Amino acid sequence: MKILPQMDRPAFRPSKLDQKLLAYLRENAGKVPHMTISQLAEACGTGEATVTRFVKKMGYGSLQQFKVALAAELTENSRNFIINRDIDAHESALVTGRKLLEANVSTLERTLAALPEGLIENCAQKLLEARRIRFIGLGNSGFTARDSAYKFYRIGLESAGLDNSHDMFMMAALAGKGDVIVAVSQSGQSPELLQTLQLAHKQGAYCMLVTADGAAGQQEFIDACIIYEAKESLLETGSIKAKLAQFFVMDLLYTQVVKKMPEQALENKRRTAEAVRMLNGEE
């Protein structure tokens, strides 16, 4: 009986202790073949007898047999699966497409479900009251920062998007009370980004972080943290689901702001659209 498929859908009714083992396996499958029974039990917070019963429920006579089978499955997976363990290198493009679509929809649903009540409203109010708004991000998150700045600028809010660390540091040095800095980061761990927020916060700016890592928002210089649900593997870096989650959060903030100023937002969009038409030589 295969082990990896059972991590999400075990062929037995798992107990609470079994669920601890399954959770550890999902996150650390590559470590288990090299662990002793006592090490595995300690890592999972269970007893050795529980580990023995668990491997038997999984269809194996001993932990050693379980570890050998798991190592073989992991080796086979490394040959057959790309991006993540849901995508098979030999499947058709349409099958892959359906899997990606389901993953993207799931990402948005989980992001929305995890948002605390009132967080978006409070952040949107800060943006409305801001003297200046600066969206910042590096790498793929820089695209989101620039796009967001453009959206808010079109409705009349003083905003700009920065994706260069030198520009970000200079902006932070000149920030002050009434400014709002919105940082976008998948990992939430970019040193340049965090240093920018720290400096801007010291100058009196209100700092928001949009990230997939909730722990990153616990820094004392981050006033508000909006967490989206989009974990990436190494080969998924810059994936559509991460971009979708970022854009979804930004669009939610933007829509909430527009709800507070519908007539002004519409008028500003009309005026900026007319300006663009003039640039193109249209009447």
UniProtKB/TrEMBL annotation:
Coiled-coil parts of chain: none
Keywords: DNA-binding, Transcription, Transcription regulation
Nucleus keyword on record: no
PROSITE patterns with a match to the protein in the record: HTH_RPIR, SIS
Domain SIS: 123-263
GO-annotated biological processes: carbohydrate derivative metabolic process
Membrane-spanning residues: none
Keyword Secreted: no
GO molecular function: carbohydrate derivative binding; DNA binding; DNA-binding transcription factor activity
Record protein name field: Transcriptional regulator, RpiR family
Species classification: Bacteria, Bacillati, Bacillota, Negativicutes, Selenomonadales
